[in-house]
Amino acid sequence: MTLARRIIPCLDVDAGRVVKGIEFEGLRDMGDPAELGARYNREGADELVVLDISASVQGRATFLETIRRVAEQLNIPLTAGGGIRKMEDGRAVLRAGADKVTVNTAAVERPELISELSQQFGAQAVVLSLDVKRKGDSWEAYTRGGRDATGLDAAEWAAEAVSRGAGEILVTSIDRDGTCSGFDCELTAKIAATVPVPVIASGGASTFEDFLSVYTDGCADAALAASIFHQETRSISALKKFLAERGVPIRLSR
Amino acid sequence: MKIAIVDYGAGNLPSVERALRGLGAETERAVEPGQLRAAKAIVLPGVGHFAAFVAGLRERNLTEPLRAAFQAGVPILGICLGLQAMFASSEEAPGDKGLGFFPEEVRALPTNVKSPHIGWNQVRRTQASVLLRGIPDDAYFYFAHSFAAPASAEPTVAACDHGFPFSAVIERGNLRGVQFHPEKSGETGAQVLRNFVESIQ
User: Fold this and answer.
1) Which member of B140, B144, B183 has the closest CB to residue A4?
2) What CA–CA distance (Å, rounded) separates A218 from A205?
3) How far out from the chain centre does Cα A16 lie?
C-alpha cells in the first residue's frame, strides 16, 4: 500500500484556448482545453491543472467557463489558478468545478489570502504556486508570471504559506521552464525537506528520465508538465509504464 | 430511485452529482429538512472543515432529519468529510458534535507524514465490502484529507495507512462511507458509486 507519485499535465489557457509560449513568436494555439482535458483523463493523468495565463479581469468569465467545460470531462481532480486575487475569486473557481485553487502574486502581496482560503475551503484545496529563480545557493520567489523578484527566499516563503494553511506547493523553476533541460531536483528536494505538505515539481521536463529523477533525487510527490504531453510525442501512459518498471509507485490505469 | 445529495453550503456537490448522473442515477440537491425526510437514499458529500460542515447542517436544520433517516434505515453514503461527520467528534473541531452514528473520534494525521494526505493510494480490505465489489485489491483511490477515523472503528471494511491505519471504507447496516473521493477516482471510483447505486435498488 503506497501513495502513488502523480503525473499532472498542465493546460495554460488564454481566451478559452490552450496556448504555448514560443520564444519570439508569442503564443501558439495548442487546442481546446476540454478536448485536451478529456484526452489526459483517458490516458491516465492523475490530476489536471488549468492556469489562466492572461489573468485579466475581462477574461475571468471566459476562464470560469473553461473550468466548467474541462471539469465536465474529468473523473480526476482539477486544480485551477492564475489571477486569484481574493477569496471570491477562489470560491468562483471552486464553484466552477475545480477541486483546488492555486495562488501566487496576491498571496505574496497579502499572505492572509492563504489563511482565508484555507479556513473556508480546507488546506487540501489551497496550492501555493511558487515561481523561483536560483540565486547562489538558494532560490528567490517571483510573482507576476516570473517578472517581479520578491526578495523572498523560496523555502522560507513556502514554509510560511504552509503555516498559513497551504496544503500543497507547486514549485516552478523559471530557470528551467521551457528549456527541456530537466527539473531542478535540488530545488524540489530543498522545498520537500522544508515543508510537511506534498510538493509538485514543474519546469524543464523533457524526457522520461527527467520524471524518474524528480521523484527520486528531487523527492517530489508529483510532477507537472505541459507541452511535452500536448504534442503526443510522449504519452502519459508510456511515461507511467516507464516509471513503474523502474520501481516508482505509480497508478496504472485499467 | 432518486438520491438526495445533501447541500450544506460547501463541498464538491457538482462533481458528485455529475458522477451519479453519469451512472444513470436520478439526484436532487437536498437543502431543506423535508427533502431529507422524503429521501429514499442520501449522499453526504464533503470537503472543507468539520466545524463548517456541522454548522452548515445545523443552520439548515438538516442534522435531525439525517439522524432520523439513519434510524429509519435509509441508505446513506458519506464521502470524505461526509464519512468523518458520521462519527461522534473530530480533533479538527473540538467541542463540535458529529452525527454520532459511530462513537469514535476522528483524528488528525500525525506530524511524521505529509499532511494533507493528497493523492492516489491503495486500500486493504478487512471485511467483505459492498462498495468495493468488483474492484481489484491493488486499485488506487484519490484521497485529499488531513483527518481520518481510526481503522479500529467497528464499521471499517477497508483500511489505508498514512501515519496510522485509518478507515478508508465503512459499511454497517444502512450506513456506508468512503474517506477517498470516488467522484475523482477515475473508473475505480465510478465502480464504487455504481455499487452504492445498485445496493439501494
Assistant:
1) B140
2) 13
3) 18
Q: Name every residue whose Cβ is closer than 8 Å to that of residue B93 and which is 6 or more positions away in sequence.
A: B49, B50, B51, B54
Q: pTM here?
A: 0.96
Residue B153 C-beta-side C-alpha neighbours within 13 Å = 33
Cα–Cα distance measured from residue A207 to residue A113, given in angstroms and rounded to the nearest whole number: 36
pLDDT tens, residue by residue, B146-155: 999 999 999 9
B2-199: CATH superfamily: Class I glutamine amidotransferase (GATase) domain (3.40.50.880)
Domains and CATH numbers, chain A: 6-245 (3.20.20.70)
A120 CA: distance to closest CA in chain B (Å): 7
Q: Classify residue B71 as exposed, middle or buried by CB count within 10 Å of its CB (0-12, 13-18, 19+).
A: exposed
Does residue B48 carry a pLDDT above 70?
yes
pLDDT in tens, B129-184: 999 999 999 999 999 999 999 999 999 999 999 999 999 999 999 999 999 999 99
CA distances from B42 to A169, B16, B29, B35 (A): 35, 12, 10, 10
- How far does the CA of residue A163 sit from the closest CA of chain B (Å)? 12
Residue ranges per structural domain of chain B: 2-199
pLDDT at B10: 66
Q: What is the ipTM of this complex?
A: 0.95
Catalytic residue chosen out of the listed positions B49, B117, B162, B181 = B181
Three-state secondary structure string covering A112-131: HHHHHHHHHHCHHHEEEEEE
